[in-house]
Amino acid sequence: MISLGIEGTAWNLSVGVVTEKEILLIESDPYIPEKGGIHPREAAQHHSDRIGPLIKRVFLKLREKNLYPSDVDVISFSQGPGMGPCLRVVATAARVLALKLKKPLVGVNHCLAHVEVGRWVCKVKNPVTLYVSGGNSQIIARRGNYRVFGETLDIGIGNAIDKLARYMGLKHPGGPKIEELAKSGSKYYELPYVVKGMDFSFSGLVTAAKRLYDSGIRINDVAFSFQETAFAMLTEVTERALAYLDLNDVLIAGGVGANSRLREMLSIMCEDRGAKFYSPPKELLGDNGAMIAYTGLLMYKHGYETKIEDSAVKPDFRIEEVEVNWD
Ligand code: AMP
Ligand code: MG
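Above: inputs. Below: predicted complex with adenosine monophosphate.
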């Protein structure tokens, strides 16, 4: 079976095509803000300008593989969570494709897709997933359905990094730039380490790091201190989830998962406990169409289909709301 999936909850407009066995292609057309952060309406305008050409490109590439639009069995789309205006563009495109090609439609939870694509490509059955992206930071594991065992109380870690980066004059997205700067940081300045139970928060940390920067501390040391603090918080809670749930595998998901220092901290923690650390390849860590296509296919094969009248977007869609009937 072949599933075509459309992702576009925030910055990355991306279409993926997968079978049960492999990813056939991922084609993306990301929105990169001129200045400042992601503006929902600007991002949605970008998505709506580009979605038509992007889908055309996907079908051209499929033709090179001797596959045609009618060979697609399922149309999947990211139904939420995400920015409302962006989600609506994606849902509209998915509905049009499903109606035009007379194929079933499957609305996919974006967070679920990050977890499922990671489980698939890493061949890991029951991990604790640390999902760290722009808008989200959650620790997720299966207990029947998926449950969130810890999460940010305010902003996502990616958003926190991007805010600090912007303040220090770096262009969006700030993650890779902060990572580079932190590599030449050497002095640690104490910053607020905020873990409350299994939850954590980042906005106080961002404010304090901005103050450090204002006080004339070297930008490399600000980046370094910020990363050390934020990533230690995430690693601590991930470890507690492993212990509490008695699990032995950690899966990383989300764009911030590309960060080598975060990966190092998680790997060390896992090694200390005799647990294993898994990561999908970089192109599947951040938002991408293949994760939506794969999860849509998985759901379709387990009896899920989204009727057009039920395909309204869900900007606050939680992973716990998805009834999971697969292994
Ligand atoms: P996502 O929303 O999952 O696509 O992830 C996007 C977020 O990942 C943005 O906030 C980026 O700044 C962040 N990001 C990307 N690469 C890195 C990196 N190497 N280190 C830290 N954050 C990163
Ligand atoms: Mg994401």
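The longest strand covers residues 23-30.
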